[in-house]
Amino acid sequence: MPHIPMDSSDSGRSPLARRSVLGAMAATAAAPTLLGLSSPASAASALRPRALPGGGDLGPNVIVFDPSTSGIQAKLDEVFAQQESAQFGTGRYALLFKPGTYNGLNAQLGFYTSIAGLGLSPDDTTINGDVTVDAGWFNGNATQNFWRSAENLALAPVSGTNRWAVAQAAPFRRMHVKGGLNLSPTGYGWASGGYIADSRIEGTVGPYSQQQWYTRDSSVGGWLNAVWNMVFSGVQGAPAQSFPNPPYTTLDTTPVSREKPFLYLNGSEYRVFLPDKRTNARGTTWGSGTPRGSSVPLTQFYVAKPGVTAATLNAALAQGLHLLLTPGIYHLDQPIQVNRPHTVVLGLGYATLIPDNGVTALKTADVDGVRLAGFLIDAGPVNSSTLLEVGPAGASANHSANPTTVQDVFIRIGGAGAGKATTSMVINSRHTIIDHTWVWRADHGTGVGWETNRADYGIRVNGDDVLATGLFVEHFNKYDVQWYGQRGRTIFFQNEKAYDAPNQAAIQNGAVKGYAAYKVADSVTTHEGWGLGSYCYYNVDPTIVQHNGFAAPNTPGVKFHDLLVVSLGGQGQYEHVINETGAPTSGTSTVPSTVVSYT
Predict the structure, then answer these.
(1) Residues 404-435: pLDDT tens digits?
(2) Residue 17 has pLDDT above 90, yes or no
(3) What pLDDT was estimated at residue 271?
(4) Cα–Cα dist 434/460, whole Å
């Protein structure tokens, strides 16, 4: 068994430390409850804030099954019927399976639905059946199969192959597939995913129509094909490096990784497991026994339910609790402020944060070991200057031993309604790991238009030594990614430029035609990227020309490997791939222009 320490900041509080919470709570406008007692001692006691409880039930939208539960398939079907096409709906669900064996299930996953096992290892929870994502709701087109996830299960697919036809924001983590994995929809329609981590697929992975994919720290029995951009790091059984024909980018190991926290059962007690950081990782964390890491009991988490105020969430954090966000929508009138080292903010079932009055949804201090995972931030109707900030401006502390991780944290501007944000995600803290994010200015849904859901910048990285593994950023009015920190690294990047630019003048960047999808600042002397792609589809004005997909200083320390740009059906064109290098796209044939190495 792993060593399971208690967080020293969460236990053994002295009375003085407890009293100090009063000031922190006052700062978040959480007033103490006065009990109307008359003695001086009781009056002093009444001035102390009432402690928020840790633990508790997981709410109505976390549905927990065990092997003896009756009607499991009917419940799965009920949730799927509600969520199958509810792309911008308000339903949020987590389907959790206690350790054991389940037979004959087909868990079809719709929008905002997560399925997960509650064991310490995927093999603790086996489904003799399937966890399926298909695209019948969208006439066989899987390019909008967003916001769903599978985690910590072993699957023995009925047909020998499990179907997982997804697009962005649909992670497949800590999964053991005792067979093959098909990443395309029935009929091999369009598909635009995706992400696998810490998983073992015993059979062959068949992407078929999938345009791009990133797989990290896993093992596969084989990989069938590639379309535009397939990237692997630390994957046993991955195809050899061969970009651009076929377009495989393969790194033997992942430089730094730390798996996402996850909820599990230790007997009848819920705990959250916190995997250790790995360097030069290869293969899964769980294949040779108990994973390395520590765990925290649920009693050290404030179990949040929709309707809770930001002030209460901040009071819980100030009290020393972590946050578990149960499925639902949370409206915020002030930022969630994470100040304590090693704090965990973990969402279940695509818990969604909405800043209502132009605030930033969540900010962290420049501290070690914060873990942000498993939630969606949806921009509100009043413009926010930022939606997520990791570290304050000017953060400079060294976090190499215990970095902050941002995992399966997704950002959306528009789509579910008008939303605006100047810059969606800002990374100021050094050594931060961004492990799978989709930052999306919506191109469809409601509240969508060049100015209606205005969002100039997707991600801005100011901190040094930041690593991004699985970066999806799309449709911003100006730069999708801006990188100012030194020694930054990105393994896999997928981008589409904003479809809805009304004309060439709307995207003109001084003398440059358009804003690059991925811009490394001129002040940067060391940066490296592997497997990066940018696509354009200027369907409002197909005559728009984008000068390049990537822009970076021409200096020896800035290196890129395996770059591509694609014009989708000739709706707009690129003049170059990176800077002045790379052939232009042309015509309507949707053929990538590639650069294998840029130094």
Answers:
(1) 999 999 999 999 999 999 999 999 999 999 99
(2) no
(3) 98
(4) 12
The partner residues of 532 in beta bridges, in order of sequence, read 493, 563
pLDDT tens column, 481-523 = 999 999 999 999 999 999 999 999 999 999 999 999 999 999 9
Distance from CA of residue 449 to its chain's centroid? 25
Tokens at residue 154, please?
A: 């072993």
Cα–Cα distance measured from residue 118 to residue 124, given in angstroms and rounded to the nearest whole number: 8
Q: Is 496 a catalytic residue?
A: yes
The CA-atom distances, in angstroms, between 278 and each of 200, 234, 341, 400 are 18, 11, 19, 12
Q: What are phi and psi of 17, to 5 degrees?
A: -65, -40
Q: Which residues contact 408 (CB under 8 A, 6 or more apart)?
A: 149, 169, 171, 173, 260, 373, 374, 375, 435, 436, 437
Q: Is 193 exposed, middle or buried (0-12, 13-18, 19+ CB in 10 A)?
A: buried
Pairing outcome for strands 100-108 and 301-304: unpaired
DSSP letter, residue 164: B
Q: What kind and span of H or E run contains 22?
A: helix 15-27
pTM over 0.85: yes
Question: Can you read off the two tokens belonging to residue 192?
Answer: 């635009």
Is residue 25 pLDDT above 60, yes or no? no
Residues 6+ away with beta carbon under 8 Å from 65: 72, 75, 95, 96, 97, 98, 102
275 HSE (CA, 13 A, CB side): 26
CA nearest neighbour of 369 among 323, 321, 405, 322? 405
| Cα–Cα distance for residue pair 135/164, rounded to 1 Å | 10
b/e sequence 343-353, b meaning 16+ C-beta within 10 Å: bbbbbbbbbbb
Nearest to 434 by CA among 404, 412, 457: 404
| Pairwise CA distance, residues 258 & 276, whole Å | 6
Helices (H) and strands (E) in the chain, counts: 4, 44
What's the pLDDT at 288?
80
- Asked if residues 327 and 277 have their Cβ atoms less than 8 Å apart, the reply is no
Answer for the pair 439, 420: CB distance below 8 angstroms, yes or no: no
Can you say whether the dihedral through the CA atoms of 132, 136, 141, 144 is positive or negative? Answer: negative
The Cα-based distances of 486 to 428, 430, 467, 599 in angstroms read 12, 10, 11, 16
Residue with tokens 């029995």: 221
Which position among 496, 528, 575, 580 bears the catalytic label?
Answer: 496
Task: Using DSSP, state whether 516 is helix, strand or coil.
Answer: coil
Contacts 24+ apart (CB under 8 A), 501-504: 501/450, 501/538, 501/540, 501/541, 501/544, 502/450, 502/540, 502/541, 503/540, 503/541, 503/544, 504/541, 504/543, 504/544, 504/545
Instruction: Show the DSSP H helices in 71-221 as ranges.
Output: 72-83
CA distance 522 to 483: 10
pLDDT in tens, 272-320: 999 999 999 999 999 887 789 999 999 999 999 999 999 999 999 999 9
Strand partners, 488: 527
Residue 48 confidence (pLDDT): 54
Phi, psi at 322, each rounded to 5°: -80, 175
**Are 521 and 489 in contact, with CB atoms under 8 Å apart?**
no
What type of residue sits at position 424? S
DSSP E strands, 542-588: 545-551, 558-567, 573-578
| Sign of the dihedral defined by the CA atoms of residues 313, 315, 318, 321, in that order | negative
Tell me how far apart the alpha carbons of residues 386 and 360 are, in angstroms, rounded to a whole number.
5
